[in-house]
Amino acid sequence: MSDTFPMNSRYYGVALRTRTGEDGSVETFVGRRIIPAMERYGVAGRHRAIAGDRIDRIAAETIGDAEQYWKICDANGDADPAEAAGPPGRLLVIPLPLEITDNGDA
Q: What is the pTM of this model?
């Protein structure tokens, strides 16, 4: 099965699921994505937030891909990307890829 989502997507590798409604209609949805524990991430660097920072811009500067902002959110325990770059002065962890740092025991 080829993956439905691109490799830089937070949903890459997450299975699509279906359910059948009482009327027989079939709905397709993305299965649950389990967010890794923050302790599983190694630190590639840090970024001190300034006024006007956006998490996608931080990802573009530090990871090289704005669409991977979710990795910074996951590593810092942020559920809402709109608030992930604040407040000014916040020190964000820029994570190493889990494939490099995770031993799978967490």
A: 0.81
